[in-house]
Amino acid sequence: MRLLHTSDWHIGRTFHGVDLLADQARSLTAVAELVAAESVDVVLLAGDVYDRAIPSADAIAVCNRGFEAIREAGARIVATSGNHDSPARLGAGAGFAAAGGLHLCTTVAACDRPILLEDEHGTVACYGIPYLEPEITRAELDVPQARSHAEVLAAAMARIRADLVARGTPRSVVLAHAFVTGGEATGSERSIAVGGVETVPAAAFAGIDYVALGHLHSPQTLTESVRYSGSPLPYSFGERSHRKAVWLVDLDASGLREVRGRELPVVRGLRALSGTLDGLLEDPALDAAVDDYISATLTDHTRPVEPLRRLRERFPHAVHVEWVRPEGNPELRYRERVHGRRDIEIATSFVGDVRDEPSAGEVRLLERALAAAVTERDAPAAAAPEPGELSA
Ligand SMILES: [Mn+2]
Question: Does residue 392 carry a pLDDT above 50?
Answer without folding.
Answer: no
